[in-house]
Amino acid sequence: MRMTDRKRKAILDAAVDEFVASGYDGTSMDQIATSADVSKRTVYKHFASKEELFAEIIHNLVGQIESVPEFTYDSKRSLANQLEAIALEIVQAVSDPGFLSLARVIVSRLIVAPEFSQFMSEQTARIDARLADWLQLAHSDGRVQIPQADVAAEQLMGLLLSYAFWPALLGIRRQSRGQPQQAYVKQCVKMFLSAYMQS
């Protein structure tokens, strides 16, 4: 990794830590520079503003889920097994403590700065699109009947996030990991596929 890339990563990592610790409004570019052990000038060389830095963090956060390797469709593998693998990766990603900490900062920022909402919507839509593409391939393969893959993707994401993300984000329920997650994912996939495998 080049020095420039290392410094950029150090700035992003420091920004995440500072945003989680102090919130968006409570974090300054000076704090981020100190935490990253770089000059303030270096921070501004990579990011023109705190808003731009925050947007990059959101982009990277969504990218953690979007990069799930199981999104690759395999016509020879069981649909249930493939979809369970995808769903479990998503559930594990969004219930990760680090992910949740940063997500709380992002959600709190969206409430007071609605201009971020459109950007956030565009970022999360990338995940739905990846899932919709997978479902469309399964539909084209004749293995499921999904006339609107984008709608179906939103339905499945709703099932997953209502269990693994929102309750934990709001502190309503402490998230259980491991076996409980796998069992829930299996039930979701079974219910989802049973609806779309009907003629």
Strand and helix layout:
Layout: H1 3-22, H2 29-36, H3 40-46, H4 50-66, H5 79-94, H6 97-112, H7 115-140, H8 149-164, H9 166-170, H10 179-196
Helix pairs in contact: 1-2, 2-3, 4-7, 5-8, 5-10, 7-8, 8-10
Report on this model:
By secondary structure, the protein is mostly helical. It has two domains: 1-48, Homeodomain-like (Arc Repressor Mutant, subunit A); 57-196, Orthogonal Bundle (Tetracycline Repressor, domain 2). 75% of the residues lie in helices and 0% in strands. It has ten helices and no strands. The longest helix has 26 residues, at 115-140. The chain is elongated. Residues 5-65 form the HTH tetR-type domain. This is HTH-type transcriptional regulator RutR. It comes from Novipirellula aureliae.
Structure at a glance:
The chain is mostly helical and 199 residues long.
Going by CATH, the architecture of the largest domain would be: Orthogonal Bundle
Radius of gyration: 19 Å
DSSP strand count:
0
The unreliable regions are none
> Structurally, how many domains make up the residues?
2
* H-E string: HHHHHHHHHH
- Could you please say which CATH topology of the largest domain applies here? Tetracycline Repressor, domain 2
Average residue pLDDT: 88
Name the overall outline.
elongated
CATH superfamily descriptor of the largest domain: Tetracycline Repressor, domain 2
Q: Helicity level, as a percent range?
A: over 70%
Structural class estimated from helices and strands: mainly alpha
Main CATH class of the largest domain: Mainly Alpha
Percentage of residues in strands: under 5%
Work out the helix count.
Answer: 10
